[in-house]
Amino acid sequence: MIRCTSKFSAIVVAFFLAASGQQPAPVTVAKANRVLQQWRQAHAAALLDDFGQLSRYREANMRLKPPTSGESRVVFMGDSITDIWDLPKYFPGKPYINRGIGGQTTPQMLIRFREDVIDLEPKAVVILAGTNDIAGNTGPMTLDEIEANYASMAELAKAHGIRVVLSSVTPVSDYGQKSANLFPLRSPQKILALNEWLKDYCATHAAVYLDYFNAMVDEKGMLKRELADDGLHPNAAGYAVMAPLAEKAIGRALSGN
Question: Are the C-beta atoms of 84 and 123 separated by less than 8 Å?
Fold first, then answer.
């Protein structure tokens, strides 16, 4: 159930209704769950050794010099959607640092938040997460648990003078065969509920809400077909939509508005 009383925009309502009326067939969910279990098994050893994957950016962090005087360094923290984002291409000349790791969930990001965000001394952090939590990549998680991890990262950032930008979870779609293993495990209702919480949290905790969702959703409540090839990960056109929204949100965060 959506845990809020604010009025949804027409497009969000359409998304909820479309999703609730177009549930994937059980066999599709079963297949997606098998793929998820295979993914967990393949990554089990690595997750046991380094659950937060601190090793991923350890050397890069050691090589990174402190920000120069007047540098508005920004860290992008997230999962695969951030990991595969070519930041220099979409933000040329900007001191933006990518610290995304494919497949990660918010508890993993929380573990590495000090090393991959705080210690890099950014002026702001852009957090994009949640879709893998909903899918259950590192085990079942409630919305309350996901929200608590978001809040913990935001509180850590603020305690160190880092401005916070919380991104909406992007929409998903079941367009095309490539989406079959990704869409069924990402509940559209949970995406809506988490985004509503993120928006409310930002409004009451002096953070900036970065709304990718409404810019990327179609009239059926799905991720626009032309913005992704697998129903989840943005393609070049998807990132072209996201980049100016992120730039605007970063500007608001850095200016304190």
Answer: no
Question: Which uninterrupted H or E stretch holds 107?
Answer: helix 106-111
Please state, as a whole number, how many other Cβ atoms lie within 10 Å of the Cβ of residue 33: 15
The residue assigned the tokens 């996201």 is: 242
Confidence at residue 5, expressed as pLDDT on a 0 to 100 scale: 37
pLDDT < 70 regions, the chain: 1-27, 32, 39, 44, 257
Of 216, 189, 212, 211, which Cα lies nearest the Cα of 200? 211
The verdict on residue 227 lying in a domain is yes
Number of folded domains that form the chain:
1
pLDDT in tens, 150-176: 999 999 999 999 999 999 999 999 888
Spatial distance between the Cα atoms of 74 and 190, rounded to a whole number of angstroms: 28
What range defines the domain where residue 31 resides?
10-255
- Looking at residue 153, its pLDDT comes to 98
Where residue 94 sits, what CATH number does that domain have?
3.40.50.1110
Does 3 map to a domain?
no
Percent of the chain residues topping a pLDDT of 90: 73
Q: Which of 206, 211, 184, 207 is nearest to 195 (CA)?
A: 211
What does the pLDDT read at residue 13? 39
48: left (phi over 0), alpha (psi -120 to 50) or beta: alpha
**Residue 47 lies inside a defined structural domain of this protein:** yes
Smallest Cα–Cα separation from 75: which of 22, 31, 130, 113?
113
**Pairing outcome for strands 96-100 and 124-128:** unpaired
**Apex 234 CA angle, 233 and 235, nearest 5:** 120
Angle 72-256-83 (CA atoms, 0-180°, nearest 5)? Answer: 50
- Listed in sequence order, the residues at least 6 apart from 112 whose beta carbon sits closer than 8 Å to its beta carbon are 52, 53, 54, 57, 99
